[in-house]
Amino acid sequence: MNINLVCIQDFEDHAFKVLPRSAFDFFRGGAGQETTLAYNNTAFSKFKIRPRCLKNVAQRDISTTVLGEKVSVPIGIAPSSLHKIAHPDGECATARAAQALGVLYTLSTGATCSIEEVAEAAPNGLKWFQIYVYKNRKITEDLIRRAEKAGYKALVVTVDVPVVGIRLADIRNRFSLPPHLGLANFEDRNSTDLMRSNKDGSGLANYVNSLFDASLEWRDIQWLKGITSLPIVLKGILTVEDALLAVEAGVEAVWVSNHGGRQLDGTPASIEVLPEIVKAVDGKVEIYLDGGVREGTDVFKALALGARMVFLGRPPLWGLAHSGEEGVEKVLQIIMNEFESTLGLSDSKSDQDV
Ligand code: FNR
């Protein structure tokens, strides 16, 4: 392990050097001119921490609970697809690293290791499964059954991808699934082939726009609730209006996110809208946040503004690209240490004091 890599930015810089250009761009890139992507990071700096003194922080506890399950830290791994592009061990390595540190892992529908492989690789780690709703509802229903059977504890329903964002780098690079990889949750070649077909630009855009159900509406959440007993987390909420509709729809949690700036360019940063959503939801459901969380101080700020958990999208991918499972662990350890240090320096003993 290269001792010079001491923060998440170092891992991103390293990934830039070692990954093929189209892979790095796929992981790093955002939609349009990437204003939202950039803003997700800089918006954190608008919030300042007011440290208090002399409150005995000799013992610091960074553990918490999420939907009633214990986790070692209020930092989870957000769903992201195609991990084998970063490392041959793919999502299994990411999940093993998360398990080793007691971190919640969310597996993406678009994974290159299957629901069952990941469950077997990290049987004792807390795992959630992220779903998209396909035009063919049976596809989604089958995925849910498999996730239930394999012991995943919640369904993260991503609602900000009715169509795929216009990601210029992927279009320029004609990004598509490399020939040696497949979408492990799907046996039929048809879906994988769609992702490989990039004649009009991005293969990913081709896949999503052909198969995802863009006609999804709020009432479809009732359909989802009717076919599973797992808690439902709605990921991709950015407004008070939608957060309140989510509460009304009876979901267990709201995940404030702009998909890491990869969908609609020009939205607010997720940290910027968090306070108004927290206020409106008024404790009725748990609230999580992702987008631009790169340091322990970011975690602290999001928690102070009312998030119960934050999630990391790109950082685990930079760890994977460095050294598979070990690299993901290192990235997680860095941000966990930074968060613990922030608690100490701000005179907080745990996330309850934040
Ligand atoms: C994602 N994201 C994502 N979200 C989701 O719900 N399902 C998915 O399959 C994916 N795939 C995906 C791939 C890649 C390469 C990235 C970078 C992101 C979005 C992800 O869950 C999360 O919302 C953002 O990545 C959070 O922002 P940061 O932490 O990357 O800034």
Automatic annotation (TrEMBL):
Q: Which cofactor does it need?
A: FMN
Name the residues that span the membrane.
none
In terms of domain of life, where is this protein from?
Answer: Eukaryota
**Entry keywords, A to Z:** Oxidoreductase
The record's section on SUPFAM superfamilies has:
FMN-linked oxidoreductases
Domain FMN hydroxy acid dehydrogenase: start-end pairs: 1-354
InterPro entries the record matches: Aldolase_TIM, Alpha-hydoxy_acid_DH_FMN, FMN-dep_DH, FMN_HAD, FMN_hydac_DH_AS
Task: Tell me which PROSITE patterns the record gives.
Answer: FMN_HYDROXY_ACID_DH_1, FMN_HYDROXY_ACID_DH_2
Secretion signal, residue range per the UniProt entry: none
Keyword hit for Oxidoreductase: yes
| Reaction catalysed by this enzyme | 2-hydroxyoctanoate + O2 = 2-oxooctanoate + H2O2; a (2S)-2-hydroxycarboxylate + O2 = a 2-oxocarboxylate + H2O2
Q: Which family does it belong to?
A: Belongs to the FMN-dependent alpha-hydroxy acid dehydrogenase family.
Protein name as annotated: FMN hydroxy acid dehydrogenase domain-containing protein
Q: Which organism is it from?
A: Molorchus minor
